[in-house]
Prior knowledge:
Layout: E1 19-31, E2 36-47, E3 51-57, E4 62-69, E5 73-79, E6 82-91, E7 96-105, E8 110-112, E9 116-123, E10 126-130, E11 150-159, E12 163-166, E13 169-176, E14 179-190, E15 197-200, E16 203-205, E17 217-221, H1 233-244, E18 252-256, E19 265-267, E20 270-273, H2 282-293, E21 302-303, H3 310-326, H4 332-344, H5 363-380, H6 382-396, E22 400-401, H7 403-414, H8 418-427
Bound molecules: zinc ion (ZN).
Domain Aminopeptidase N-like N-terminal: 23-194
GO molecular function, one term: zinc ion binding
Keywords: Hydrolase, Metal-binding, Metalloprotease, Protease, Zinc
Amino acid sequence: xxxxxxxxxxxxxxxxxxxxxxxxxxxxxxxxxxxxxxxxxxxxxxxxxxxxxxxxxxxxxxxxxxxxxxxxxxxxxxxxxxxxxxxxxxxxxxxxxxxxxxxxxxxxxxxxxxxxxxxxxxxxxxxxxxxxxxxxxxxxxxxxxxxxxxxxxxxxxxxxxxxxxxxxxxxxxxxxxxxxxxxxxxxxxxxxxxxxxxxxxxxxxxxxxxxxxxxxxxxxxxxxxxxxxxxxxxxxxxxxxxxxxxxxxxxxxxxxxxxxxxxxxxxxxxxxxxxxxxxxxxxxxxxxxxxxxxxxxxxxxxxxxxxxxxxxxxxxxxxxxxxxxxxxxxxxxxxxxxxxxxxxxxxxxxxxxxxxxxxxxxxxxxxxxxxxxxxxxxxxxxxxxxxxxxxxxxxxxxxxxxxxxxxxxxxxxxxxxxxxxxxxxxxxxxxxxxxx
Length: 436
Ligand SMILES: [Zn+2]
């Protein structure tokens, strides 16, 4: 048997560089009782390198049928959490194909070495999909690469009585006997790991206020939820739109599960929180700000390689400190100094711009990344710094980026030698001094 492709060394056994997916149309049904998922995924594929084989990622689910238009399918097979499509002949670069996969099964999280488990997960009464970074194949066949963004339509027929929240805009909600169908469309390009559905006995909670831009912001959770931590979420949107530029999607939902969750997680146009992270304490509030900030940094502007994870986590962590400052609490400079002190006491064996998969979500990536941004802010001044952030999002939204691109961008916008300033933070182990 031939070797199956890997697109990114941080996620061995995921992704295929020979093609891209332009659109996913997921037409799914899910029975909460019994955890049974079934349906059709229609993928609009563009061939990027001449190939006679397409390898999709799909874990734990069985494939009942595959149809390909635009090329002749010789056979398909599933192995090693992949769906391998052998074509009758090689198709040239630039060919567009439509692939329809009918599949079914009982979805469950995918466990990866160094990364733990991710993906479709049953709650006490409902479902979360927390896919970062490797969990998407647990619920739909995909080309699981962070740099392969697509538009999505997600239709889910689910047991009546549950609320579904997925990416983008709710286009349709209809009831039919014992089921309800929810149809979402995400037009802005989205990486596979940011695709999600949330299923629970949820209601919409009246938000405390609306953002100045009129952006629809929801708090969705159990009827008895008391979540004072979200009371200022609309003000966070105002602050971040001022600092980072317009919110990049057409709405935002914070979904709070009835269960407690270890960590919250961002998806495109929504985030998921356990009901243990809803209070007015700083640890809840900073995470509410953090996940919201990922809509700009991570979701609109997405890394091309997982090694550049600081472009997501360093920025979202710095956004926590900015919210602290904007809300009249501790200034970012003070938080940077405090966390810099803590970093100095920790082992300095992490390379920020390539931490390795096992340290990808290490707290030092977050804090050192945020300190590096603070160092940049001190060096170039507030005006240039926020101009760098705003133009970074404005010029890169919908695309995939690298650290090198950020350094070039920051240098050209600020007119400063950003490379010399940030290289020790990014590419050397020793913690640089924090300028003040
Ligand atoms: Zn984060």
